[in-house]
Structure formats: C-alpha cells, structure tokens
Amino acid sequence: MAIVYRARDLKHDRQVAIKVFKPELANVLGPDRFLREIKVTAQLSHPHILPLLDSGEADGLLFYVMPFVEGDRCVTGWDATASCRSTKRCASRAKSPTRSSRRTAVASSIAT
Length: 112
Hints:
Layout: E1 2-9, E2 14-21, H1 23-29, H2 32-43, E3 54-58, E4 61-67, H3 80-94, H4 99-111
Antiparallel strand pairs: 1-2, 2-4, 3-4
C-alpha cells in the first residue's frame, strides 16, 4: 500500500522515515484509506508505536513522517505463524465498530 523511505529532516537535522502512498494504488483505491491511517496514527500514543511527526501531500503524493529507528528490518527473525495469528486476531477486532479495535488493527499493521 505504501513505500517507506529513509530521509533527513533538514530543519531538525535528524533521520526520519517517510511513508508514501503508492501512486498506482492511489488511482485505484483513492486516498481515503491512507488519510484514515494518518488520522488514526496521529491519535496513537504507546511506547512501542512510533509517533507521527508530520503528514501532507507533495507532487500529488500523500505521505507521513515518523522517527527513523536504526536496526534490522522488521521482517528479520519474523515468525510468520505467530504473525498470521496476530493479524487474524486484529482483523477480527477491526470488524467491530469500536474505535479502540480499529486502533489495534492499525497499530498492528504499523508495527509489522
């Protein structure tokens, strides 16, 4: 759904990660889902979830900015079986109309 780039925040002289909505998906899906992801991500506050630093549109591309965390890719050492169970559990919660369930599903997709 998106591509994450490593970049330098020139104003604050720090490394950041920029998540950019893939343009080919923007044409098919529209921007609503990504805009919802930005809104929910901005509301999350947890020590294991990176905060949203900025968001916007540049050259017709939607993006948001998070702190960059040095280290291995998230998929290194990934237990596909455990992750699959966790994803299914979060997906079933996301079908519930409660706000916290939707946040859980988004937080799960951000963490993986």
